[in-house]
């Protein structure tokens, strides 16, 4: 048994042709956040502290669909959501409909620790943030030019889309400016276990591009996008409606608890059998220090490390020799 950590930056139709100038900043962010998490685990910080810390770092990075880089609703506004869960106690907190909170994951933790509730949303969540003195900014802080362009593309195509949905080609002979992945970003999440088997999970997102105002996805739903108990911790990413229908995060834990499956077996079953292809990815760690990163999409921005020295940072499937 030893510590382990895994994080993701979203799963979807990520083109292998993703331009270097678009890919490298995201890989650099994964590398940086992985180091932040590993250093925190080595410093014996609790898994709950570690996942919050890592997700805050990812929320502050405009290349991912959470916090600073959150995508826009059909009205061009921001509605962020997040959740966090402690495996030992099953205490959890979740928030939705945030428009001014710099780090939604930290507000989710405050809901867990400072209220008798699990989930606060919209005006009530914003009011609670102000009462707690958590950092807030004008909502314009979150509206980036890249996300304005992505919303425009989604509206032109008349679709609600996942972060990595490829633009429709109007002329097959000419690539659109984003055909190689320009401004393609993703939901973020982190799971961690310490050397004593304590587990935690955290997930944060801006949701779907061109979503209806008021739409809530899987990220703040305990058991769908986020779950942790004394068997494992799971953070999911992809198309929220499919993840909610599949109760993805909870099912991984349930297969381990009631069927005796290993972490890798449970995650693989849920990803391959419970959710239609092209809809989900997840990262998970077990109380034994095992780690898995499974997805049924083209790719998933992901990274992991374990106490025995294993580490991985990847986007697409690894080449098997």
TrEMBL record:
GO biological process, any: proteolysis
Looking up InterPro entries in the UniProt record yields: Ntn_hydrolases_N, Peptidase_T2
What is one Pfam family matched by this protein? Asparaginase_2
Entry binding sites for substrate? 215-218, 237-240
Site Cleavage: list residues: 186-187
* Catalytic activities: Cleavage of a beta-linked Asp residue from the N-terminus of a polypeptide
- List the active-site residues: 187
Q: Which domain of life is it from?
A: Eukaryota
> What GO molecular function annotation could you give as one example from this UniProt entry?
beta-aspartyl-peptidase activity
Alphabetized, the UniProt keywords read:
Autocatalytic cleavage, Hydrolase, Protease
Q: What is this protein's record name? A: beta-aspartyl-peptidase
Q: How does it assemble?
A: Heterotetramer of two alpha and two beta chains arranged as a dimer of alpha/beta heterodimers.
Cited Gene3D superfamilies: (Glycosyl)asparaginase
Q: What is its EC number?
A: 3.4.19.5
Question: Which stretches are transmembrane?
Answer: none
Q: Does the keyword Protease apply?
A: yes
């Amino acid at each position: 048994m030893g510590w382990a950590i895994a994080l993701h930056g979203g799963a979807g139709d990520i083109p292998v042709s993703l331009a270097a100038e678009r890919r490298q900043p995201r890989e650099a962010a994964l590398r940086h956040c992985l180091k932040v998490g590993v250093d925190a685990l080595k410093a014996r910080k609790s898994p709950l502290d570690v996942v919050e810390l890592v997700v805050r770092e990812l929320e502050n990075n405009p290349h991912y669909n959470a916090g600073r880089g959150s995508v826009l609703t059909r009205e061009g506004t921001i509605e962020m959501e997040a959740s966090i869960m402690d495996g030992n106690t099953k205490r959890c907190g979740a928030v939705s409909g945030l428009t001014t909170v710099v780090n939604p994951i930290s507000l989710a933790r405050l809901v867990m620790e400072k209220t008798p509730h699990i989930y606060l949303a919209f005006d009530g969540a914003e009011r609670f943030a102000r009462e707690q003195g958590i950092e807030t900014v004008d909502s314009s802080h979150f509206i980036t030019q890249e996300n304005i362009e992505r919303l425009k593309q989604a509206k032109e195509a008349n679709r609600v889309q996942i972060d990595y949905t490829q633009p429709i080609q109007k002329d097959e002979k000419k690539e659109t400016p984003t055909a190689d992945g320009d401004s393609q970003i993703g939901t973020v999440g982190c799971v961690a276990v310490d050397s004593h088997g304590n587990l935690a999970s955290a997930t944060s997102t801006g949701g779907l591009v061109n979503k209806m105002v008021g739409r809530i996805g899987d990220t703040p739903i305990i058991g769908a996008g986020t779950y942790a108990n004394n068997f494992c911790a799971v953070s999911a990413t992809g198309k929220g409606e499919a993840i909610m229908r599949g109760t993805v995060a909870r099912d991984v834990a349930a297969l381990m608890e009631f069927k005796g499956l290993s972490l890798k077996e449970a995650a693989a079953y849920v990803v391959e059998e419970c959710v239609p292809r092209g809809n989900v990815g997840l990262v998970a760690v077990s109380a034994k220090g095992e780690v898995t990163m499974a997805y049924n999409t083209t790719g998933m921005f992901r990274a992991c490390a374990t106490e025995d020295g294993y580490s991985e940072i990847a986007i697409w499937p690894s080449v098997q020799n």
